[in-house]
TrEMBL record:
GO terms for molecular function: lipid-linked peptidoglycan transporter activity. Keywords: Cell membrane, Cell shape, Cell wall biogenesis/degradation, Membrane, Peptidoglycan synthesis, Transmembrane, Transmembrane helix, Transport. Involved in peptidoglycan biosynthesis. Transports lipid-linked peptidoglycan precursors from the inner to the outer leaflet of the cytoplasmic membrane. This is Probable lipid II flippase MurJ. The chain crosses the membrane at residues 38-62, 83-102, 122-139, 151-171, 183-202, 222-239, 259-282, 303-322, 342-363, 375-394, 400-422, 434-456, 468-487. It is a multi-pass membrane protein. InterPro entries: Lipid_II_flippase_MurJ/MviN (IPR051050), MurJ (IPR004268). GO terms for biological process: cell wall organization; lipid translocation; peptidoglycan biosynthetic process; regulation of cell shape. Pfam families: MurJ. The keyword RNA-binding does not apply. It comes from the Bacteria. It comes from Alkalicoccus halolimnae. It is found in: Cell membrane. Its main location: membrane.
Length: 508
């Protein structure tokens, strides 16, 4: 598992770098303008309308596929997969039709502050991006299929061709003065992702079948698992809706500033958290279906500490260097000084909840593997209620930054609640040992941040800003991992030992 996680982190890092280039390109050509706000809303609406269903289905898919394959055989599992895809295609056609008819009211729900040209642009973009839902169905299901088949690389590299196509569409749209190419570029990128997944799925024995059976017992069981996830995702999307609606009212470009800040925290989440959970989820699902609870709890413990090892230092580093990081990545072209201030503030306060957000994903997937989707749903509902209350309390005082802080506080609170619920369900996860590891990681992160702060000031006096920040980050990472080497954290020590064994084997 450790080898797969490390490889996945490297591949995800490459994908995220290209994804960053996409966001930097959008920031350069459109900044925090009305067009960028309209484009981002047009991206968000299909995700909310259908993405919540897709997430629930793909989450329930792996535990059910594992059970069907073990009890009924691979052919039944393949039939179940195709039936699920075909049912979703029919269902999504209804959603798309309704979305095309009621586009403007839907956009107004998502961004009540939009008026005039920005509103018209968002409506036009959304009518195009809604068509991408068809490709999203295949992308979600086939990605889960390949992850179960242990072909993790392909789904996690899909972001590269997608980002390159979107980058090309952004540049072309700006150069030709035709913003509609932004929306068409997104749909084209989704189509390419679908083709790539289809090719590799066929190499892993997937075959498309014309099966449509609403009475299938396996489909019914999967829906029972998926419905709580769908409801949980729905309330989370309501939360994002409130965030974006308030952002559209707080400031022009507020939606874009939140998006860029979220992109930065999502970079850490995507590389570290997603890499761990992508490998962990199929593994613990198999362990749960076989009744191997001790092995499952050990894997969970290692995954939780692993997420903390990587997200805690990233959190501390982001808190210290929020503004320089935003300046380095986005401060050019149409992205002006006011955009830097807005985005930096949001990034700072999003960073506070980075660890909580990561651990919540790990803990939620632990419940999913046990075929308990209700507990994460209730947790998500509590998080949304808390977040919305905090939004209305903090946004009038802190603006965009208040929306980000509300998200972080609710994530931390609900992660603690999930820990409590998981302990009640499966017993001890060696919490004392876990807490000791967390304290050691926090101490190493604090020393790293303090040293980096003073090193950065020195470098700024003798070199230009970009190399000063990059060199400071490198030195901070060296300090952090050197400290970990002396702190005796089991998850870290096992990872280092595994790398040493691999290197020793290659150089024999």
């Amino acid at each position: 598992m450790k080898k797969a996680v490390i490889i996945l982190m490297i591949l995800t890092f490459l994908s995220k770098i290209v994804g960053f280039l996409r966001d930097v390109t959008l920031a350069y050509f459109y900044g925090t303008s009305g067009i960028s706000d309209a484009y981002l809303i047009a991206l968000t609406i299909p995700v909310v309308i259908f993405g919540i269903v897709a997430k629930g289905i793909s989450t329930g898919y792996i535990p059910m596929y594992s059970r069907i394959e073990q009890q009924e055989g691979p052919s039944s599992a393949l039939r179940y997969t195709n039936n699920l895809i075909n049912v979703l295609l029919v269902f999504s056609s209804i959603i798309i039709l309704l979305g095309l008819i009621f586009t403007e009211p839907v956009v107004k729900v998502f961004a009540s502050g939009f008026e005039g040209e920005t509103l018209a642009t968002a409506v036009y973009f959304t009518r195009i991006t809604l068509l991408g839902i068809y490709f999203t169905i295949f992308i979600r299901i086939l990605s889960a299929y390949l992850n179960y088949q242990k072909l993790f690389a392909v789904p996690n590299l899909l972001g590269i061709p997608m980002s390159l196509i979107v980058i090309a569409s952004i540049i072309t749209a700006s150069e030709t003065g035709n913003p509609s190419l932004l929306a068409y570029g997104l749909v084209a990128a989704l189509a390419v992702q679908w083709l790539i997944l289809l090719f590799f799925s066929y190499r892993k024995s997937f075959r498309y079948q014309k099966v449509f059976d609403l009475k299938d017992e396996n489909l019914r069981r999967m829906l029972i698992l998926a419905i709580p996830v769908i409801l949980g995702s729905a309330v989370q999307q309501i939360n994002k809706l409130v965030d974006r609606t308030l952002a559209s009212q707080v400031a022009v470009g507020g939606i874009s500033a939140l998006n860029y800040a979220h992109t930065l925290t999502n970079f850490v989440h995507g590389i570290f958290v997603t890499s761990i959970t992508t490998v962990m989820f199929p593994s613990i699902s198999r362990m749960a279906s076989k009744g191997n609870s001790d092995r499952m709890k050990y894997t969970l413990h290692q995954s939780i500490v692993g997420v903390a090892l990587l997200t805690l230092p990233a959190t501390v580093g982001a808190l210290v260097f929020a503004e320089p990081i935003v300046r380095l990545l986005f401060d050019r072209g149409a992205f002006d000084s006011s955009a830097v201030v807005m985005t930096s503030g949001a990034f700072f306060f999003y960073s506070i909840g980075m660890v909580g957000t990561g651990l919540r994903v790990v803990l939620s997937q632990a419940f999913y593997s046990l075929q308990d989707t209700r507990t994460p749903m209730v947790n998500a509902a509590i998080a949304v209620v808390l977040n919305i209350i905090l939004n209305f309390l903090l946004a009038p005082v802190m603006g965009i930054s208040g929306l980000a802080l509300a998200t972080s506080i609710s994530a931390i609170f609900c992660t603690v609640l999930l820990f409590y619920n998981l302990k009640k369900k499966i017993g001890s996860l060696q919490f004392k040992k876990m807490a000791a590891a967390f304290l050691k990681i926090l101490a190493a992160s604090a020393v790293m941040a303090a040293a980096a702060y003073y090193v950065y000031d020195y470098f700024l006096a003798v070199m230009l800003f970009p190399p000063a920040l990059l060199l400071t980050m490198f030195i901070g990472a060296v300090i952090y991992f050197t400290l970990l080497n002396f702190l005796k954290i089991e998850a870290f020590d096992h990872g280092v030992a595994g790398i040493k064994r691999k290197l020793a084997g290659k150089f024999k």
